[in-house]
Amino acid sequence: MARFLTPAKIGLLALIELYVEGVVPNEGIIPVINFLASNLIDCDLSTAQSPNNNSNNNKNLTPADRWKKAESTLRLVTSIKDFETLLSPLAAADKLPGRRLWDRFLEKLWGLDSLHKLHEFFAAIPGLLRRTKEELRRLGLEDEEGELGGRTRLGRNSPFGAFVRRAHVEFVRLKFERVMELWRVFVRYRQPTAGYWARRHPQHGGRLSFDQVLTEGEGEWGQKETGELAVVAYGRMLLPAVGLLAREEGGMEGGETLPVSSDDVEGLLEFQIEQIQKYGNRIPPQIRDRFRNFLKGSHTVPSLSHYLNFSDAWRSGDFPTSFDYLHRYFDYTMQNRDRLFYQYALMNLAIVQSDFGCHKEAVATMLETVSTARENRDTTCLNFALNWFFHFGRAHPHLVRELENNSMLGSGKETLAFLRVKAKETGMWILWSSALQSEAKLCLANGESVAVAFEHMVRSSQLIVERNMKTMMGAQISMAIAMWDRLGLSSMASMACQVFLSCHARNSVFDDELKITCRLAGLLAGKGKYEEAFAMLESLDQNSLRSARPNQYWHLYRGLLKLRRDLHRNNLPAVDTLLAQLLQTGPEDAEPDTVFIIDTLHIEALVRHRDFDGAFTKIDNMMANLGENNRDVALRIRLLIAKAHLFDEIDRPEKGFTIAMRATSMAWRALNIPLLWQAVGALANVLNSLSEFSAAAQLLLSVLPRVLETDVSFTAGTLYNLLADARMGQAGQFFCTAVSDESTELERQRGRRRQREMMMRAHAALESAYKYFERVEEVEKQAEVLAKMATVMRGLGDEGVSEGYAARYLSLRREVERVNG
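Structure tokens predicted for Anaphase-promoting complex subunit 5:
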């Protein structure tokens, strides 16, 4: 394998020479410079920001576009087609009829018709550069403007100038056999254009036109002797009657290796690893297979290829293979470096073990990472290890409880404060921003001041903007979404999701895009827009979902949405099937919050199966577990509300009074608005059972406008249903007044009028409740509401409408029975 020079780089040098000579037309300057820049440096002018293109192109970028650089490098190395695609549409600057820039480019390439000409080409390319002051002094020139005659020259330190200088130096260093090998692969690389070149220049269309020495010697030496000499010089590239061996579009014929340099391989390795680490995606299969073909021609495998294979195996969920490649990489890289980078090997190993569920082993490995980083005085590694310990401890508190008790840092707050200070001192901006976001999350989890949490978020946002840390926008917006959701502002949370997906997803890790897409799908499902929610999940990039963890999370969340929908539909066989799969997900396989959602849905399924003992036992076990691990206060509030609801299901709602009061108090202190309204609903239900109908109605009327802001249709329907119960209770009280012997005639008339008014209000509330239950396809509640509406209309004397409601109720019941078999 060559060190630097390849046929593709000779083509780039020829294109730079055309640009310097002024052959490129004005309309072709930007495309040519963009082509050169994208292949020499990591820059693409077509997607760069500009006044006329500040968002349109970027908005349409897909995850597949991120791999275009690797694809273009692979195509350029193996085929000359990219040069033709670029130059064929452009006319040459001399404006001769039928003269394209592609023709001038081929003149350069076919002008190298011998090994001698190749030497002359590389000897002349330093003339493309501006002369140094020493050279000008030696030539007795003040400057070189007069000498240039309008011709452009490249700055010696410009990207193009640096490439020209390096190409010249690398060619001078080559041994003769390497130069000969470069010439042979260049001839093979150029050969697909031989037919076009022969048609344009018939005088150069001979069988051996690729080598002028052989063409000129054929008359002197004879055809047979020239052929034998060509076979000696070019080996199996020649066939007796054809000339050059034909090359297919996809690569070399037979077992020949690709004309690739170690510089190209290293550049592609670094690019692929950067993409995996930056976006969390696996390598597309077609790029991976073509890159393996690249490595076939190399006698030594770069050590970075082991890290690339490790990353790909890790993302694919293959633990043994990833473990093996990780050991290989660090075995190769640390042969002569003692223990200088040993802590990074341990840190990678701990992260891999954690991802594959080996949590105890991960803790032990990360502890060794900390001790090794201290020994080597590697502050960066130490800070990241401590940050990992904090987040791991929040997810698995039982595994690090002993460590926290023995730690000098104390609780999570002290750890975060320490990390924030150290990150600021060492200039680790990403860690600093992450610590601020973690402090905000800790404030919300502990039910502390939302204003303090917002303060941490604003400081983190300022840091992200000042340091242009685009990859941190996913975590920042995820935290903002959680805050808006806590405050009951669903529209703001939905807007934040859409802003991220439209503007920031292309620069963020795929995990952030996946979680925010799932959050938006959850908001849509809360409104009853299930089809839109599933379409949102299906719109994610399929190559990104090839990674094991994102794929598992995607299937899990999709299953949760389907389970939620089947519970609303009361499709109990489908619910049991889904739960049988989802309940196998433990803390080792998913995030604790996801496991909690599965458990709460399991409780609801038990209630619908009328297994109240099982539901009560599960709630008590979950509350005990939350208390031990000091989890998010919102989770405890949800369990309290579920317990109050369970007492209502067994017709003992008054037993849930203290529980509902406690849930309401906790939600108010934590300012968790959606749960506050659910707790208020549970409290109103208890008040209804205690015949405090006016208090319940007053309570519900005060919160319903804010409930509608949360866009949770089921909660809104439940509260409207409770309001209807309160109104009917008030109607009953007025009826008692109307029929009481102790009431005056005026009081009786007023009681009958107020009774009818309350029944009409109850009917209006029931209509609203039915509308919201219908949105989320909640059939049991729809049936309950229809039965109540039929009863209300019968009480109002409208038998026809009452019969209509009754018929709809029976139809809905038959449909539910048909679904459940």
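The chain is about 70% helix and 0% strand.
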